[in-house]
Amino acid sequence: GNSLVLTDFTLFMIGNTFVGKALPFVPMVDINPDKELLFPPCKIGQLVYQTFRVTNLTDTPCLFYIEKIHGPFRAYPQYGMIAKNSYANIIIEFCPLKPNFYKEHLGIVLNTNHKKKLLLKGYCLQSFIELENNGSIYFPPSYLGVKTNVSYKIRNRGRMQVAVNIDVPSAYVKELTFDPKRLILSPNETRFI
Question: Model's pTM, two decimal places?
Answer without folding.
Answer: 0.65
